[in-house]
Amino acid sequence: MITYQEAQDTLRSMTKSESLLRHARTVELVMRVYAAKLGEDEAQWGITGLLHDADYEAHPDQHPNVIVNMLRERGEEEIAHAISAHYTKWGVPYNSLLDKALLACDEVTGFVVACAQVRPTRLQGLEAKSVLKKLGQKSFAASVDREEVKLGAEKFGVDLKEHISFIITVLQQHQEELQLQPVEAQA
């Protein structure tokens, strides 16, 4: 299996944007904790989350094909397939729990981070109901596909509010690393 260091090196070779690197890390963290909760392979799930958008910045017109092909060449078919399926409009079937988990965690984790960034207390005290309310505001984080958020939770078989609470809890445990601690704590 691809090592964590190899995955990080691959990501960093194609991604320079701090916000994209943070997004990769947040999805990785959530995927790892879900894997532990569900008795799945934490390393595999984490690497899938870490690499899902690895080629997005360097090869936007070919995303996700560049990273998918790289992983397939290395024999990482399960990770490659999950990454190839992390957007429903690509029409790739959801064959495994890993595929469904990545779809469920990608958009909504990014949205939770966006919600945290506009709050002085960031993740501290952030509740799922506030995130759900923001999801209803089409102008907030307008690039987030609300239908993908809904479909992801459905395909993964989780209640969206509980899913968002789970994500918030995971990210709160890493708020300093993610630079999402309260504003006064960042000084």
TrEMBL record:
Q: Which InterPro entries match?
A: HD_domain
Annotated TM spans: none
Pfam families per UniProt: HD
- Residue ranges constituting the HD domain according to the UniProt record: 21-92
List, alphabetically, the SUPFAM superfamilies matched: HD-domain/PDEase-like
Q: Which PANTHER family match?
A: METAL DEPENDENT PHOSPHOHYDROLASE, METAL-DEPENDENT PHOSPHOHYDROLASE
This protein is called HD domain-containing protein
Q: Which organism is it from?
A: Pontibacter mangrovi
Could you read off the lineage of the organism from its UniProt record? Bacteria, Pseudomonadati, Bacteroidota, Cytophagia, Cytophagales
